[in-house]
Amino acid sequence: MSSLPFKVSIQVFLAIPESMTDKHVQLNDPTIMHEASLLNDPGSAQIWASCPANEVADVDQYVETFHAAFEKYRRVNPRERAKILLKWHELVTNAREDIAKIVVYETGNPMLEAVDEVDYALGFAWWFAGEAERIRGSIAQASI
């Protein structure tokens, strides 16, 4: 396993388990390269991570798991939902530079643009946290 072309202060971003298979994002692990999406630095073409590929057979398990999560989350009151989103906003804010570095090495964007992307996304987290308490319980019908 080779080292990363960059340093991050919060290592959790580099070992995020999938909800079903408990596979992780791997740092340049040659044993899984054949069954994964590879992340390479567009500037040097160096592979620095891989993400496990999923199979069609995994879909039903994902749907069941996410449906169970939805059934639990739908009972969370709006104030608690807002708190969850604000906590997420805080975590992303604290990891802003690390996330921006990952964006740089994944997309080739300059660091300033990557930081701007993170800040832009943070605006949505903040906005939705504010909207969480305004839930009215109605669902708009689709036009078809």
Automatic annotation (TrEMBL):
Leader sequence segment: none
GO terms of molecular function: succinate-semialdehyde dehydrogenase (NAD+) activity
Keywords: Oxidoreductase
Family matches, as Pfam families: Aldedh
Residue intervals of the Aldehyde dehydrogenase domain: 40-141
Entry annotated with the keyword Oxidoreductase: yes
One of the record's GO cellular component terms: cytoplasm
InterPro entries: Ald_DH/histidinol_DH (IPR016161), Ald_DH_N (IPR016162), Aldehyde_DH_dom (IPR015590), Aldehyde_DH_Superfamily (IPR050740)
SUPFAM superfamilies (alphabetical): ALDH-like (SSF53720)
A Gene Ontology BP annotation from the UniProt entry: gamma-aminobutyric acid catabolic process
Name of this protein: Aldehyde dehydrogenase domain-containing protein
Naturally occurring in which organism (per UniProt): Fusarium oxysporum Fo47
